[in-house]
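Lab notebook, bench 4. The sequencing result for the construct came back, and we need a structural model before the next group meeting so we can plan mutations. Quick request posted to the team channel:

Model the 3D structure of this chain.
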Amino acid sequence: MIWAIVQQVGGQAASYAVFFLLAAILRPEDFGIVGMASAWIGLLGAFAEIGFGAAIVQRAEVRSEHLSTTFAINLAGGLILALAGVLLAWGAADFFDTPAVGPVMAALSLGFVIRAISLAQAAYAQRELRFRALAVRDIGASAVGGLVGVGMALGGWGVWSLVGMTLVNNAAGAILIWRTTDWRPRWREVSLARARELWPFSSRILGFNILKALVQNVDRLVIGFVLGAGALGIYTFAWRVVVFPVRVLSSALGAYLFPKASRLQHDHPAV
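Done. Here's the predicted structure in token form:
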């Protein structure tokens, strides 16, 4: 349990410190442009893993074939979503009447592929209650991404420092989780039958993720459309300051209790 808390608190503390540093260097409009792009990225992100990672954590018995199948599905989904993000980028720019949103959204869409490479690994680590590995990933990735973001901001890269920070954070997280888990995907183990076994639970998670994505991003879509990048940047900063600390402990508890209770799912008194 303590490592689940360290994972959330450590990762959030690192990103928090970087966020305040960047707020002192960059303009509100820079945060607003990324917020506009991220709103659309967030809607697409509801389909990022189709709930298969959660199904891996929840399932009473998991074989390597389940993990390899999940990896293949996530990778295919990541490639499709990255392409969709690039194709929709300039439509999003027209929606907000902010041309800078187009290239920013196209670049951030690459994160779908980078994250897809590590989703099955992260689900496996969570299932095995390896929160120390997850903590190392989150804290290390936040630190590396933060250094790149602050360095780019000081170098005058503006909004692209936020893009660079996000992509480097994703890449560092993928590298770290691969280094701290011993399972590796095998293409010969990819099986449609295993996907069918995971689908009943993952489909419910997918439905929840779609609703969650709408709830969490509709405010940014409306504010960006009506008030513009500057107002959205200020709103994004205020939201991070107020809401994120409240979510840290609840996220830690949920991340720990989900795999723990899943292992006890057939013992109702124990749950």
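The radius of gyration is 19 Å.
Will bring this to the meeting.
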